[in-house]
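Lecture notes, unit on protein representations.

Consider one protein chain, 331 amino acids long.
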Amino acid sequence: MWEVIKKNRFKSSMLLIMMSVVLVVLGFVIGSSVDVESGGFVGIIIATIVYLIMLLVTFSQGKSIMLRMSNAHEIGPDDYPQLYNIVEEMRIAAGLPVMPKVYVIEDDAPNAFAAGVNPKKSVVAVTTGLLRIMKRDELQGVVAHEMAHILNRDIRYMTLATVMVGTVAIVSQIFLRSMMFSGRGRGGGNSKGKGNAVIMIAAVIFAILAPIAIQLLYFAVSRKREYLADASAARLTRYPEGLASALEKIGSSTQDLKVADKSMAPMYIANPLKPKGQRLKNLSSTHPPLDQRIKILRAMGNAHSYTGYQQAYHAVTHSKKSIIPASALER
């Protein structure tokens, strides 16, 4: 799967570049709305400082931030023996160099995620709700799916994206709220006042659209990863039905994960936030349709190879595009 790993490294680099451009432009527009002459330059400097700080925080503390956001606590082999044993089994099957740390989230909604910037510093977290309703082979399927994200280096990209998307949203919100409370933008009748008003309107529009555009990109990129992680999980466990049954149970749950928010939603094996409104469901969903993922896994039958998943994907979706890299299909 070297193609996937290489592509994820490239996408991580492109994400960092894209986020820096968005933050710098956002800083310039917001700065110019405050002071037309020199505000843009000051805004760029402030945005660059914010970006560098967030970059440092992401690489050093990104995983810890997400675990704290999820109220997850680390467990050992004596706390949840079956879970710990399954993680160990799947680590060996995936050929990972280091055992991921195992965390549990005290929440009734069944779900799980993996995080970290590389396989040597990764974690797998599951909810108590998931542990309560899963049989062993179903739990194995879920853990294998998360292990696949670690193996394919998805976690690096998604960890970076989660923190960076949050940064753009925070900067935008700070500006918009300061506008509301300070009453800025009431230009005078002269041409300079009108110019300020135009820049102010542009700043508001950009501050609203920037985080939305990045979030939609974030959603779109995360969907294909879920198909590939499902395929990898079927290969690691050699039992596609285990993951299919687990996804069915997760999908039948009506509970929202209390500790989840929009920025972290793509990290989970299934969308932890139930979409409001059928029309916007596909646009805003962080994952492919759950029923489609289940049908693909069950269409594999007794097959548990990447080729078997690709064939099942074509049969269910009637799409000609390839989910699995060519190098993996050659195995």
